Amino acid sequence: MVTVAGEDVTAAYLRGAECALATARRYGITAAILKQRSPSCGSTCIYDGTHSRRLVAGRGVTAALLRRHGVTVWSEEDKRITNGR
Q: What does pTM read for this prediction?
């Protein structure tokens, strides 16, 4: 993960994902609603990293880590969430 200025922020994203997982474990969280398209939280698509607003299929680092550890991850755009189903 690189900022528009060229700074590598990968370690910070990974630390954030680990903190989110630790919190989920601490409180017994089994599902999370995260921000779609975010490089951290995207659940089905994320920005491609070129800072050109192009989207690619994939998961952000936090969404992927949570899913690997059994947490169900939804987007705030998920119809099941917004329609109350």
A: 0.85
Work out the angle between the directed axes of helices 61-68 and 10-27 (0-180°, nearest 10).
40
DSSP state of 43: S
Q: Where are the alpha helices (DSSP H) in the chain?
A: 10-27, 61-68, 79-82
- Per-residue pLDDT tens over the stretch 61-77: 999 999 999 999 999 98
What does the pLDDT look like over 29-45, one tens digit per residue?
999 999 999 999 999 99
Q: Is 38 exposed, middle or buried (0-12, 13-18, 19+ CB in 10 A)?
A: middle
